Amino acid sequence: MIQAALKAGTHRRRCVFETFTRRLPAGRRYGVLAGTGRFLEQLAGFRFDDGQLAFLEEQRVVDGPTLEFLADFRFTGTIHGYAEGEAFFPHSPVLQVEGTFAEACVLETLILSILNHDSAVASAASRMTGVAEGRPCLEMGARRTHERSAVAAARAAVVAGFAGTSNLEAGRRYGLHTIGTSAHAFTMLHDTEEQAFRAQVDSLGTGTTLLVDTYDVEAAVRRAVEIAGPRLGAVRLDSGDLAGQAGWVRELLDALGNRDTQITVTSDLDEYAIAGLQAAPVDSYGVGTRLVTGSGAPTTSMVYKLVARENSDGVLEPVAKRSLGKGSVGGYKHAARRLDAAGRAGAELLALDPGLLEGESARRLSVPLVADGEILPGATGAEGVEAAAARHRASVAELPVAARRLSEGEPVIPTEHLDH
Amino acid sequence: MIQAALKAGTHRRRCVFETFTRRLPAGRRYGVLAGTGRFLEQLAGFRFDDGQLAFLEEQRVVDGPTLEFLADFRFTGTIHGYAEGEAFFPHSPVLQVEGTFAEACVLETLILSILNHDSAVASAASRMTGVAEGRPCLEMGARRTHERSAVAAARAAVVAGFAGTSNLEAGRRYGLHTIGTSAHAFTMLHDTEEQAFRAQVDSLGTGTTLLVDTYDVEAAVRRAVEIAGPRLGAVRLDSGDLAGQAGWVRELLDALGNRDTQITVTSDLDEYAIAGLQAAPVDSYGVGTRLVTGSGAPTTSMVYKLVARENSDGVLEPVAKRSLGKGSVGGYKHAARRLDAAGRAGAELLALDPGLLEGESARRLSVPLVADGEILPGATGAEGVEAAAARHRASVAELPVAARRLSEGEPVIPTEHLDH
C-alpha cells in the first residue's frame, strides 16, 4: 500500500485513523483498555534496521523508493487516546492517529497487536478482580501463553487490579510486585513430603506458602503446621473441590492454632470459579490459563480504520466504507462518558462536532499522547502501570452496578453518536 | 524452588520431566505439535544477563548461592521429543527433559510457553488446511494477537500447512513465503476507487489482488477488470455473504473474459467458515483472528511434570502425584504410534518398558534433540519449518479419516499405557 501510494503521490495525504472495536466479546458488559503504555514505549524506538531493510530488498517485497521511505521512517504525527485502564465500549475511539497516510499505515499492526492483546487480558482480569471483591488475585499464567505475551499479560492483569505476578521479567520490566509458589515437582523431588517442606521452610522461612495436595491434603496440612509452626504463611490447594477443601482446611488450621495461616487456591480459575469460591474461606486466588487467554475472548477485535483524509484539493474530509456488516462512520470522533448527578456513567458519547458535548454532563475521554512525533511527558513509563491501575479502579467504579454481573448481557451503557 | 533445593542439596538430583497435555481441547480429534524448533533456538542462547541478575538481587527474589547458580546457568542435560509437525494425543510425551532438578526446573516456563502457544495455533491451522483440501490458506492474523506471538503464530501456521503469511518479520526470521493485500484504507485514501485501483496496478502490476468491497462490489469488479485487464491476478472479498458473492463474481469475471483472475476471501474465517465456502468458487482463504487465537482453544494446556528422580541413594525412581483429577503416571515413557498394514494409525502407545513396543507394528515417535547440553545437528534451524510442514502432512495423512471431521468428538485414536 505504501509503495503504491508513494508512486501515486498520495502517501503524504493527511489522514486520521481510529482504533475501536465494533462489539464487545459475546455477553461482556464492558472492556478495559490496556497496552497504551507499551505502545508508546515501542513507538519511541520504532525504526527499520539494516537487516529488515535488506530482507525487504532481497525478497523484492518493496521497491527502492519504499525502502528509502522505510529507512528514514520516524513517526511525525499526533496521537490521542483513552488513558490506559479506562473502560471502553463498542465504537469507543480508544486510539486516534493523525499523520500522513504512509506513516499512519506503518503503525497499524503495532497498535492493533498491542491493544488487542493487552486489552483482552485486562478485560478478563477486571471481571476476576471485580468478583474477588478485594481478595488478592495473582497472575500465574506465563506457561500457558507465548513467552513474550506472558510478560505483557502480567502487566495488563495488574492494570486491571491483579495484586502481583509470578512473571519475574514482568516484575523487572514494569516494576510489578512479584510472587512465587512451589510446584508438585519440588515435593516429589524429595524422598518425603516432610523433607520437601523442611527444605522450603529452611530456605524461605515460615512465612512461605506450602503446597499441600501432592499426596494427602489433611496429612500435609498437619505436617506443614508441625514443621513451620504457628507463623506458617499459607497453604496452597491446587486440585479437587477447592471450596469444600478450603472449608475443612480452614477449620483444621484454626484447630491447630494457625489462625493467621492463609489459604491460597489455584487450578484453572476464572471469574466464574472465583465467584463460586467467594463464600469459602479463601484468602487469595492464583489465576493462570483463563487470565492470559482472555477468559474466552483472547482478542478484543479492535480495528484501525481510516475515517478522514485530505483530498486532492488539500481539504481534510470524512471517509467511510460501505462493506456489508462492516460499514464505518467517517470523521474524527470526540468522546465523553455521560455521568449523572451521582457520578454514575449513563452513556458513551461520540460526536464529530465537539460542541455537541458542551451541553452534556460528561467526562471527556481522550487525552493527548503524541504531538508532532514527540511522546508527551507522563504519557508512558514504568510508573504508568500504577497510574493505569488507579484509573481502572475509578473508571469501573463509575459504571452501573450491572457491569459486575457475570451473566451474559449487553454493554452496560449504550454508545450514542450525537451527530445523527 | 531452586533456592530451597540448593540449600537442601537436592538440586543436583537427576530428574526426568515430561511435557504432555491431559486432554485435547473440547471436541478436537488430534493436536499438532509446533514450537520445538523455536524452543531449541532459544535454548541455545538461554542465559541470565547482568540486568536480570541485578533485579533478582536488588528485589531479594533469591539468595546469593542461587544468584551464582543462575549466573553460571547453562543447560547440560538431554532432551527427547516428538518431531515438530507430529500429531499428538492426550498424554503423548511431546518433550522429555533429563537433567538436574535445578536445570530442568529453569526451563519449565520456556518450554511450556512456546509449545502451548505454537501448538495451539498449529492445531487450529491443521483443521483449516485439512478442510480447505488444497486451496491455499494464508496467515493474516498479526493484528489480532501480541506482536511477538504473531511472528510465532505465522511460523506455526506454516508448519500446519498454511501457504504463506502477511507477517514480514516471520518471513525474514523463518524463511516463510510472504504475501500481502491492500486494505479499505488504501481505496478510501484516494479520491475515487478508480484512482486507487490505478495506483495499485501502476505500482504492483496487473498480477496484484484488488479489494472490491469498499463501496459497490459489482461496480468494483468491472472497474478492476477495466483497469488491470485480462491478467488481473485476483479480487478480494472481505464482507457480506462470501459464498454468494464468490458465485456471481466468478460468473462476472468469466463473462468479462477474466477466467484466470482468482477470487480470494477474508473476514473472520475459521475451519467452519472454510468448510461452508468449499462449494463456492473461491481460490484462496486469508485467515486471521481465529487462526492466531487457536480457533477457540488459545492454549494446548500442556503441563511439565516430574516423572522420575534420583533418590537419596542415587537411584532413579518413578514419582507421581495423587492430586484429585490431576494424578500423574510416574516413569519415563517411550512412545509409538500403532499402524495397521495399510499404514493407518490405530493407537498412541506409551510404555515405561520399551521392550513392550518391540512386538508392535508401530512407529517410534521420540527423537533425540539435545544430548548433554548440545543441540543435535538438524534438530533446529530455519530449514526446520519446511521439514516440520512435510512431517505434518505425513502424520495427519496417517490418521483415520475421522480426524478431519469438524464435529466435536473424541481423540481419533486412543492412548494406551502398555504397562498397566
TrEMBL record, chains A, B:
KW Cell membrane (keyword) present: no
Source organism superkingdom: Bacteria
This protein's GO CC annotations: cytosol
InterPro entries given in the database record: Aldolase_TIM, N/Namide_PRibTrfase, NAPRTase_N, Nic_PRibTrfase-Fam, Nic_PRibTrfase_pncB, Nicotinate_pribotase-like_C
Gene3D superfamilies assigned to the protein according to its UniProt record, in alphabetical order: Aldolase class I (3.20.20.70), nicotinate phosphoribosyltransferase (3.20.140.10)
Protein name: Nicotinate phosphoribosyltransferase
Family to which this protein belongs: Belongs to the NAPRTase family.
GO terms under biological process: NAD+ biosynthetic process via the salvage pathway
A single GO molecular function term of this UniProt record: nicotinate phosphoribosyltransferase activity
Modifications after synthesis and translation: Transiently phosphorylated on a His residue during the reaction cycle. Phosphorylation strongly increases the affinity for substrates and increases the rate of nicotinate D-ribonucleotide production. Dephosphorylation regenerates the low-affinity form of the enzyme, leading to product release.
Pathway of action: Cofactor biosynthesis; NAD(+) biosynthesis; nicotinate D-ribonucleotide from nicotinate: step 1/1
